[in-house]
Amino acid sequence: MEKNVLHTINEIGKYCQAQNLTLSVAESVTSGYLQYLFSHGEHTTSYFQGGITLYNNFQKFKQFSINHSLTSPNNGVSPLVAELLAKGTNLCFNTNLGIGITGFAYKSLEYDVSEPHCYIAIALNDKIIYCDKIQVNLGSMDSNQIFFAHQCVSHLYDNLQNLKTI
Predict the structure, then answer these.
(1) In the predicted model, what is the mean pLDDT of residues 57-71?
(2) What domain range is 118 assigned to?
(3) Which end of the chain is flanked by fewer CB atoms within 10 Å, N or C?
(4) 0.70 cut: is pTM over it?
(5) How far from the centroid of its chain's Cα atoms is residue 154's Cα?
(6) Per-residue pLDDT at 101 exceeds 80
(7) Residue 164: pLDDT band by 50, 70, 90 thresholds?
(8) Sheet holding 97-104, edge to edge
């Protein structure tokens, strides 16, 4: 694991501990990699409650009641689905901070995806504090997945920094 990602995770942990915040993740495109990353932080068990990988639309419906009409046209890849994942993981794990991520780590003719991309959403309690689309094509599915996970960590850190100034 890159040292700067681990450092950022440790800083997120310190902030969560100081503010008495807990974190969970609901991921699709990153296939559990966010959970892997957060499991390597210092004192992780004091703030990271866990995560769930919802790799297909049936699980998005079964676990978080995300309606098929929202997932079928785009294989569950949209800003709204990312937001529902972020809010849903807060409910599922009883946390304050939730990350939702869904996307395509590869090009897909079936869904007219010419560039790999994802949507990242961060919920603080029941409010979305961040949602954006990230695009990258590093040449392989796993490289794209790793990049997307690192972007989640970075954007969570940035948003927590912004909360400090409010």
Answers:
(1) 94
(2) 3-164
(3) C
(4) yes
(5) 11
(6) yes
(7) confident
(8) 48-53, 23-27, 97-104, 117-124, 127-135
The residue type at 146: I
Write the pLDDT tens digit of every residue in 79-98: 999 999 999 999 999 999 99
CATH no. for residue 144? 3.90.950.20
- Give residue 2's pLDDT band: very low, low, confident or very high (50, 70, 90): confident
Residues paired with residue 131 on neighbouring β-strands, in sequence order: 121
Closest CA to 121 of 8, 28, 6: 28
Distances in Å between the Cα of 124 and the Cα atoms of 15, 16, 97, 113, 159 are: 14, 12, 5, 30, 10
Q: What are phi and psi of 127, to 5 degrees?
A: -115, 130
> d(Cα 130, Cα 124) in Å, to the nearest integer?
9
